[in-house]
Specification:
With 78 residues, this protein is mainly α. The chain is 77% helix and 0% strand. Helix 2 (25-34) crosses helix 3 (41-50). The mean pLDDT is 92.
Length: 78
Amino acid sequence: MASRMAQKNDYLFGLYYQLGPERSLEKLTDVLAGVGLRTSLNTVKRYSSEFGWQNRVIELDTKAQENRELEHIQVIEA
Protein backbone atom coordinates (compact mmCIF):
# COMPACT_ATOMS: atom_id res chain seq x y z
CA MET A 1 0.00 0.00 0.00
CA ALA A 2 1.34 3.40 -0.96
CA SER A 3 2.22 5.79 1.81
CA ARG A 4 0.03 8.80 2.47
CA MET A 5 2.80 11.08 1.20
CA ALA A 6 3.14 9.08 -2.03
CA GLN A 7 -0.63 9.19 -2.55
CA LYS A 8 -0.69 12.94 -1.97
CA ASN A 9 2.22 13.32 -4.38
CA ASP A 10 0.41 11.38 -7.09
CA TYR A 11 -2.67 13.57 -6.65
CA LEU A 12 -0.71 16.83 -6.64
CA PHE A 13 1.45 15.82 -9.58
CA GLY A 14 -1.59 14.74 -11.57
CA LEU A 15 -3.19 18.14 -11.09
CA TYR A 16 0.10 19.87 -11.85
CA TYR A 17 0.59 17.93 -15.07
CA GLN A 18 -2.97 18.60 -16.22
CA LEU A 19 -2.28 22.34 -16.07
CA GLY A 20 -0.46 21.87 -19.38
CA PRO A 21 2.58 23.61 -20.83
CA GLU A 22 1.91 26.83 -18.91
CA ARG A 23 1.91 24.95 -15.58
CA SER A 24 3.59 26.38 -12.53
CA LEU A 25 3.69 25.54 -8.87
CA GLU A 26 1.99 28.85 -8.13
CA LYS A 27 -0.89 27.98 -10.48
CA LEU A 28 -1.21 24.61 -8.76
CA THR A 29 -1.61 26.25 -5.37
CA ASP A 30 -4.30 28.51 -6.88
CA VAL A 31 -6.17 25.49 -8.27
CA LEU A 32 -5.96 23.73 -4.92
CA ALA A 33 -7.21 26.81 -3.07
CA GLY A 34 -10.06 27.04 -5.56
CA VAL A 35 -11.34 23.62 -4.51
CA GLY A 36 -10.82 24.30 -0.82
CA LEU A 37 -7.49 22.51 -0.40
CA ARG A 38 -5.16 25.10 1.04
CA THR A 39 -1.63 23.92 0.36
CA SER A 40 1.32 26.23 0.77
CA LEU A 41 3.68 26.98 -2.06
CA ASN A 42 6.54 25.67 0.08
CA THR A 43 4.76 22.32 0.46
CA VAL A 44 4.19 22.05 -3.28
CA LYS A 45 7.84 22.98 -3.93
CA ARG A 46 8.96 20.26 -1.51
CA TYR A 47 6.84 17.61 -3.25
CA SER A 48 8.07 18.75 -6.66
CA SER A 49 11.67 18.50 -5.58
CA GLU A 50 11.44 15.28 -3.57
CA PHE A 51 9.46 13.42 -6.23
CA GLY A 52 11.20 14.82 -9.33
CA TRP A 53 8.21 16.43 -10.98
CA GLN A 54 10.23 18.15 -13.70
CA ASN A 55 11.71 14.84 -14.82
CA ARG A 56 8.27 13.21 -14.70
CA VAL A 57 6.85 15.98 -16.89
CA ILE A 58 9.63 15.44 -19.42
CA GLU A 59 9.07 11.67 -19.40
CA LEU A 60 5.30 11.98 -19.84
CA ASP A 61 5.61 14.64 -22.56
CA THR A 62 8.17 12.52 -24.40
CA LYS A 63 5.96 9.44 -24.19
CA ALA A 64 2.94 11.43 -25.42
CA GLN A 65 4.95 12.78 -28.37
CA GLU A 66 6.16 9.28 -29.25
CA ASN A 67 2.57 8.01 -29.17
CA ARG A 68 1.41 10.85 -31.45
CA GLU A 69 4.22 10.08 -33.89
CA LEU A 70 3.36 6.38 -33.89
CA GLU A 71 -0.31 7.14 -34.51
CA HIS A 72 0.68 9.47 -37.36
CA ILE A 73 2.79 6.73 -38.95
CA GLN A 74 -0.06 4.24 -38.61
CA VAL A 75 -2.43 6.65 -40.35
CA ILE A 76 0.04 7.18 -43.19
CA GLU A 77 0.58 3.43 -43.62
CA ALA A 78 -3.16 2.63 -43.55
